[in-house]
Design brief:
heterodimer; A: alpha/beta; 6-stranded mixed β-sheet; 11 helices; 25% strand; globular; B: mainly alpha; MetI-like fold; two-stranded antiparallel sheet; binds adenosine-5'-diphosphate; binds magnesium ion
């Protein structure tokens, strides 16, 4: 039997998508991020801002165990995803399929547009063409790309324009039916119009999933994020409601200076 | 603004000079090939006929056709390919996609490079010891093909590994991030995009295998046989050895016969190469990033 106190704790945890405790990341012996403690709540857009080399990308990499692909990358601390310790879970494939990732530079796989989006459902065992058709159309529509590509689903995804490829990447991430969508500076190689379209998409997706948005544009965090964390030189300087941070109520001077564009 | 200065003129002259220089080097390079082909066609072309290709040699190999040799070469090459391509590609996939970067992997890579440098006569003697004697295949197509397969494995491995490595890492990471296993990633994304490069390795192998003489003459190719081989455990005649025999070992061979044999040998290599190249171009046209 679970005691009522434990049940309460468990309930409180369930609204937490991600619970990160004392996370430190090293490349060899050089720290990239130290002692970060934060949580990401269900159905929020959690923004992360900070200058280059602050450790933002490294942080994202640890959340779905991408650190395994970098031989000298070491991770310390605890990360719980939906209450599960991701360092202990054997089934990293299941973990990764719950988390959609969008990189700074869009990666259109050298497959057709259709297959780019159908790949993940196929990997999880869906073979029926009609089912795949439905998924492909739904994901491309939600990524605001369907109208532009619906007549050429069989042409190569890697030959689309940068902005289209980034939306294709988002459609592909959505095809995983993820719990969490992580975006790392998605607008770097994307034109302003497409950026705004993707931002609208993200606002809508919030009702269905949790979004972690790393961005080099502070105004983008202001437009989208419910809460924002400020990373600087391997430290998480401050976490707060986005509104507070941007209305001059940040606790740390460096946060205020960064948001006001005094450095970057 | 656009008038031509002295400097412009000089630059253009230099550029022209180098272009011509490089073109002459290229012409120089293909001259011997053209001379060889021309000589073969000139001296041996007259003997080529359907009969020449499809009948047995007669009169102590001084007349008749080359069918047993042609047949044997096709068999030896086919069996060698069957053995070396799956093993070579599997090894390349392991080395490129799975192997951790440690001392063992580095030693294996070094061994592969060195294997490519071993003279073919050494491979021949290894083939005798290993396949003819130890595995008791006798002098046979199987022993000859396996010897050739081992000899050409490094080429297949290196070419395949390089074409796997040419597939950008970002594609793999994107797949892994979706929860794909390594094998799913290889099968769906990496291999389909490496096929054209892997074929290059196979082309090279086919060319080498077809013309090799030393590795097969002790392991499976015969001087003369009145019958065609019935299975891979029989000996066979082969074009390359037949060429050696009729040009140096048998008295009274008419001059055009060896030239004809050489022409057929080269034509075979060219034919197989063109088929593979055409296939490769077809695949290239389809896949792009
Ligand atoms: N593969 C790597 N090997 C060594 N150091 C790295 C590697 N990747 C990132 N770093 C270092 O880690 C620090 C944080 O990098 P990163 O997480 O990419 O920051 P950000 O995304 O905020 O720009 C930087 O100092 C960077 O040089
Ligand atoms: Mg980054």
């Amino acid at each position: 039997m679970v005691s009522s106190a434990e049940a309460l704790v468990k309930d409180a945890n369930q609204t937490l998508k991600l619970d990160v405790r004392d996370l430190s990341i090293y490349y060899g012996d050089t720290p990239a991020l130290e002692n970060v403690t934060l949580d990401v709540r269900e159905h929020e857009i959690f923004g992360i801002i900070g200058p280059a080399n602050a450790g933002k990308t490294s942080f994202l990499k640890t959340l779905n165990r991408m650190d395994m692909f970098t031989s000298n990358m070491k991770v310390q601390g605890d990360i719980h995803f939906n209450g599960f310790d991701i360092q202990k879970t054997r089934n990293i494939y299941a973990l990764r399929s719950r988390i959609g990732v969008v990189f700074p530079l869009p990666v259109g796989l050298p497959l057709t547009i259709y297959e780019n989006v159908a790949l993940s459902p196929r990997l999880s065992g869906i073979r029926n063409k009609a089912d795949l058709d439905v998924i492909v159309e739904r994901c491309l529509t939600r990524a605001a790309l369907w109208d532009e590509v619906k007549d050429r689903l069989d042409s190569l995804g890697s030959l689309l324009s940068g902005g289209q490829q980034q939306r294709l990447t988002i459609a592909r991430a959505l095809s995983q039916e993820p719990d969490v969508l992580m975006l790392d500076e998605f607008s770097i190689a994307v034109d302003p119009v497409t950026t705004m379209r993707i931002e609208d998409v993200l606002k809508e997706l919030k009702s269905e999933m949790t979004i972690i948005l790393v961005t080099n544009l502070v105004q983008q965090a202001r437009r989208l994020a419910d809460r924002t964390a400020f990373f600087l030189e391997g430290k998480c300087v401050e976490i707060g409601d986005t509104e507070d941070l941007f209305t001059g109520n940040a606790k740390e001077q460096s946060t205020i200076d960064y948001i006001e564009g005094k450095f970057g | 603004m656009f008038e031509i200065s002295e400097l412009n003129k000089r630059n253009r002259k230099t550029q022209k000079l180098f272009q011509i220089l490089f073109m002459m080097m290229t012409l120089l390079l293909i001259t011997p090939v053209l001379i060889i082909l021309g000589t073969l066609i000139y001296k041996g072309g007259s003997i080529i006929s359907v009969d020449f290709l499809f009948t047995h040699p007669t009169d102590g190999m001084t007349a008749g056709g080359i069918f047993p040799a042609l047949f044997g070469t096709v068999w030896i090459v086919a069996v060698a390919l069957l053995a070396s391509v799956p093993i070579g590609v599997a090894a390349a996939i392991y080395l490129s996609e799975y192997a951790p970067d440690n001392w063992l992997t580095r030693i294996i890579n070094l061994a592969i490079i060195n294997l490519a440098g071993v003279p073919s006569i050494v491979h021949a003697l290894f083939g005798v010891g290993a396949f003819v004697i130890f595995f008791k295949f006798g002098t046979s197509i199987l022993a000859a093909s396996l010897t050739l397969a081992i000899m050409t494995l490094p080429v297949v491995i290196v070419a395949s590994r390089e074409s796997l490595q040419a597939v950008p890492k970002a594609f793999r990471e994107a797949c892994w991030n979706m929860g794909a296993t390594r094998w799913q990633t290889i099968r769906r994304v990496v291999l389909p995009n490496a096929v054209s490069g892997i074929l290059t390795g196979v082309i090279l192998e086919v060319s080498r295998t077809t013309g090799e003489t030393a590795p097969i003459m002790f392991t499976g190719a015969a001087f003369f046989l009145p019958f065609l081989p019935q299975s891979v455990f029989d000996q066979t005649m082969a074009l390359s050895l037949h060429l050696f025999v009729v040009s140096t070992q048998v008295p009274g061979v008419p001059e055009e016969l060896p030239y004809g044999v050489a022409l057929v040998l080269i034509a075979m290599v060219l034919l197989m190469n063109s088929i593979s190249i055409a296939f490769r171009m077809y695949l290239r046209g389809k896949k792009k990033w």
